[in-house]
């Protein structure tokens, strides 16, 4: 019977056991994500690592040392590297590209094709307003109905049309040749 369905006997046995225990609901897709991750780095610790990284521009080993010395937090340099590593999206890979595609679809449904724009400026203002709404007010199911800005520690930045963003006080400014003269 498993061969006819194109699945292994082990898979068939697992599905049959689920069907016997839970009925039709047992055959629905189950998430492969673990229910809990007890070894996961706490979110406030990850936020601290990211903030310290932005302030110091140090690599993983010096950051781990700074965390221990300044905050009494002990993390392996490999853990610091995992937290601070820039994550790239592989093209055509739904597992890593899904959030980008989801946001693009949301833009299409909730902003781009909702109404006609008579000028480019009007379209850009509407985009800025939508981005602020999306980040600060719109509930996100993956975040338990909270807006996404709550995931970024210490940030309440809103986009303002025709006004360049203010530089952040805790980020070093770019040096020029005049600084060395």
TrEMBL record:
Biological processes annotated in GO: DNA integration
Domain of life per record: Bacteria
Alphabetical list of InterPro entries matching this protein: Homeodomain-like_sf (IPR009057), Integrase_cat-core (IPR001584), RNaseH-like_sf (IPR012337), RNaseH_sf (IPR036397)
Gene Ontology molecular functions: nucleic acid binding
Sequence ranges assigned to domain Integrase catalytic in this UniProt record: 45-155
Protein name, UniProt field: Transposase InsO family protein
Source organism of this protein record: Streptomyces echinatus
